[in-house]
Amino acid sequence: MNFLLSQQVEDSSNPGLMNLKLARIQYRICLNASVDCARFLLRQGLAFRGDKEYEESSNRGNFLELYRFLADHNENIKATTLQNAQESLKLTAYDIQKDIAHALVVETTNTIIREIGDALFSILIDESRDVSTKEQMAMFYPKDFPFVDLMILDCQLETYIMDMRSSDEFLKLKGITELAKMMVAHKKDEVFPLVYLLLTLVLILLVATATVERSFSAMNIIKTRLRNRMGDQWMNDNLVVYIEKDISDGIDNETIMQHFQKMKPRQGQL
Predict the structure, then answer these.
(1) What contacts 212, CB < 8 A, 6 or more positions away?
(2) Can you give the residue ranges of the HAT C-terminal dimerisation domain (predicted)?
């Protein structure tokens, strides 16, 4: 006797209550199976959709094929999902897949934030040498760079770059540490105070090179030639789970399902 049948027998004395509980059980089984499929694909950096997802297709994409595999190997899932599920409660639509993925991403992010707490952390920034990138980095420090200072920084940077390029002493420097020392020695920190402040903030910023490289590698794995039309949000969700899989693995399905349920009104109830 499978799980659903045992529930029917247990509540057979009250048909209304039995139907309500049975509907919730079916919904939970369908949703749990969808969460399992989404978690596996996100963790492995695999695509969800296929070119031909109609019922008669021999390959309906990774998500639906994995879902069908689970159903073939679990009687409870098979009895309540795919062809046996209500049309509006199959929980296999692409929007459902994206909502499940985003729910996992939010819970993963919240876990990271809780772990960090009030501790120090670093911000990873890709290297570029143009003026606008330096201004964008300044935006990470709103307390040090109010809006007026950002406008002044724009002018200071242009003058600073021209000044540095015209000095043979500054052209021979090998790193930002030497640059900071040389600016103090030549009193450039007084001439360009905001640039010097930005430079000192960069010096105290801890950058984990290995983590940066791992992130770029993950992007190459996830955004392949066949997935080159991924939107920013969907790519971000895929990257977060793939990169932080050690953390996302520790989040149970119940937490994800509860978050998914609260994202918007759902026809089914847990």
Answers:
(1) 124, 126
(2) 187-246
